[in-house]
Amino acid sequence: MSENLGLSSKIIESTKKKYARFRYTQQQLEEALTRITNNDLSINKASKIYDIPKSTLSNKLNNKVPWQRKMGPLTQLTFDEENKLADWILTKAKLGFPMHPEEVYDTVEIFLKQNERENKFTKGRPGKKWLTLFLRRHPEVTKRNAEIISKARAAVTEEAIRNWFTELNKFLEEENALDIKDDPTRIFNSDETGVMTCLKTGLILGPKNYKNTYEIASGKEKESITVLCTFSADGTDVPPFVLYPYKRMPPAVIQNFPDTWYIGRSDSGWMVSVVFFTYIKLFYEWLVKNEIRLPVLLFLDGHKSHINRDMFDFCREKGIMIFCLYPNSTHILQPCDVGIFGPLKKNWKRVVRKHKQASTVPITKQNFAALFKIAYDRSIKPTTIKNSFRVCGLYPMSPDAVDYSRCISNRRQEIAQQNQKGTTTSSLHDQKR
């Protein structure tokens, strides 16, 4: 008897209908409710079309529960806050900056701290479970981000770069900013570079058979100072931003610093989100001071960019449209890398070499900026900047101006064709013999 009861109990359990927690989106729910309210559909028909329980539709229409879809315990972020977060993730992905889950966790953690909200997360930080539920509530995020990530892993090919230009044009069209393409004063490229204070000098000359030929080092070995440079397609340079590894800026550094340049600091001396945001504010002030028409287009390298939520909102509000260069293509598409930083580094070597010949004082953080300015002023010319934007196809904006021979896939194809040609020629010679 007991065995039969046990068996029947199992049968009953296995035949129970299981409902998915969410089979519909908020947009589908609102559309269904609107069509019912407008007498386009009955509750029964809307339930079948949108796969929403009739009881849910009825309760919302009778104002027993709000139209906003809500099941289970309250989330840490409100409905509107989650929507803004989802919008930010999608917008960043659209601009070519797909977010890693850790970045999303950081964003939520910082937001709760800044707003002094109750934080129920373990150690005050969301984890995989929260992200899984968040993506379930916002399925459009998973799908859209997956597309961007797969693109980021793709090879750098001529087809991929041409598609990137198409996406750029589409973005400008959606933002009602196609006129930027014809205005070089509103097209910018910003990138950071590490400048070594102690450089390898190569060969040195001395007496024959005299082994003890030494050279005094120009600075501390392996010490590098980060410099962030920004240029516009009309040949203008924005004052450089020099970043020092200090917690407190020494007066000696400030005293020897160029008057028109920007100075910053971080504990490590590396560019981080907070510091980059500080620079973007300075960049905006420069735009206003120089009466540059807004919005402007700023191209960034996605691998080096440090975009947090506050900076994202600031740029949106002020009219700084950030667009990511195609992944792994800075040697093809980034003016800073293609034609500007090369001459700058060469002139820096000359300045270092001359300084060592004229002085026994090593290059330190205190005198770095003044010396680097000499190399900068010698290298940064309007014609150099304009040509760099031109060969990258960023102004005039044209994918046909790009040097596609620098694509690895194109090189491989050329080598294969040359090898095939060589093989064919050899076989013809053999036949003649």
From TrEMBL:
Pfam families: DDE_1, HTH_psq, HTH_Tnp_Tc5
PROSITE patterns per record: HTH_CENPB
One annotated GO molecular function: DNA binding
Stretches assigned to the HTH CENPB-type domain: 69-144
GO cellular component: nucleus
Alphabetized UniProt keyword annotations: DNA-binding, Nucleus
Localization per record: Nucleus
Protein name according to UniProt: (apollo) hypothetical protein
Organism of provenance: Parnassius apollo
